[in-house]
Amino acid sequence: MLISIARLSDIRIRDIADEIGITERAAQLIIADLEEAGYLTRSRVGRRNAYSIDPGRPFRHPAEADHDVRALIAIFAGNEVGTAAGEAGKPTS
Fold first, then answer.
1. How far apart are CA 91 and CA 82, in angstroms?
2. HSE (side-chain half, CA atoms, 13 Å) at 85
3. Which of 12, 39, 68, 73 is surrounded by the fewest CB atoms within 10 Å?
4. Phi-psi category of 86—alpha, beta or left, where left has phi over 0 and alpha has psi -120 to 50?
5. DSSP, residue by residue, 5-51
6. For residue 59, how many other CB atoms are within 10 A of its CB?
7. Which of 50, 46, 38, 43 has the alpha carbon at shortest distance from 12?
8. Residue 45 CB neighbours (<10 A)
9. What is the structure's pLDDT at 30?
10. Per-residue pLDDT tens for 14-73?
């Protein structure tokens, strides 16, 4: 889910669900969970939602809690993620 959003910050939930093979409802629940945990911030842009990722958030699992999601996103989304929320998907210089 984070990888899809990192690739395209204004992707529709329907498109995310299709891309990863889950229902729209399941995608909505995951996004709500990621928002509540602080990984995502949602904002309205016209009639659509735009998402920004906080790449400094650590992984949830205790075994990986000393790592943040920045490296994972960089590997799978094919880009470096900025250090502040709102810079997701933007290459760093």
1. 7
2. 13
3. 12
4. left
5. HHH-TT--HHHHHHHHT--HHHHHHHHHHHHHTTSEEEEEETTEEEE
6. 14
7. 50
8. 9
9. 95
10. 999 999 999 999 999 999 999 999 889 999 988 899 999 888 888 876 666 677 788 888
